[in-house]
Give the backbone structure.
Amino acid sequence: MNKITIAIDGFSSTGKSTVAKQLAKALGYVYVDTGAMYRAVTFYTMQNGLISKDDFNSEALIYQLPNINISFKFNESLGFAEVYLNDVNIEKQIRTLEVSSYVSKVAAISEVRLKLVEQQQKLGQNKGVVMDGRDIGTVVFPEAELKLFMTASAKTRAERRFQELIERGDKVEYKDVLKNVEERDYIDSNREDSPLVKAKDAIEIDNSHMTLDEQFNKILQLAKMTIEDLE
Ligand code: DC
C-alpha cells in the first residue's frame, strides 16, 4: 500500500494532536508533534534565563541553537513518542501555561524555524507520517497528499485547554487560558516567517460541534480515500 504524508495544521488547541495520534495509530504511521519541538526550544530558552515577561534575548538563543538537540522516543505505554531535550524527557514540562505564554515569540524567530523545519523534513522523508503544526502543509511538506486545517472558536478551544490543565493539576484561571489562546492565534497568524495560514489545497475541519469519534472517523475516511486514489 502506498504511504502518504498527512499534514494537519490549525489554531492552538483545536485537537490536532489528538486526532493525529489516533490517525497514525490506525494507519501504522509515525506521528510527529512539531509544536512540541517549538515548546522544547522555548523550555531551553526559559531554563537558560533568555526570556522573561518583559525581555527576550533572541540573539543569545540564535547563538546557542547548535547546543539544542531535540529528539523523540516512542513510549509503549502511552502509545506515542515523547519529546527529549538534550536526552532529557521534557514531555510534561513543555505543556504548562508558562511555556505556552512564551512559545509564539520563540517560534517567530526565523533561525529557530529553519533548524526545526530541516529536522521535520528529515523525520518525514520516507512518508508514512502524520505531522501536526502551523506550517506543515505550507512550508514543511507543501507536496503532502492530504492536508487538513483544523478550526474551532477561541472560546471552545480555551475551554478544552482549561479542562486539560485542570485535570493535570495545574492551577490556572479560564480567563488566562483564553487570553493565551487569543494571543497565540494573533502572533502565529501575523508573524513574518511562515505564518499560520490555510494551504489552498487543505480541507478545513471546524470541530466546534463534533465529538472526537465523529472527527476521527471523518479524517480516517479522508486518509483512506487519499491512499486509495494513489493506487
Ligand atoms: O501545537 P502547539 O500549541 O503545541 O504549538 C505551540 C506553538 O508552537 C504554537 O503557538 C506556534 C508554534 N508552532 C509553530 O510556529 N509551527 C509549528 N509547525 C508548530 C507550532
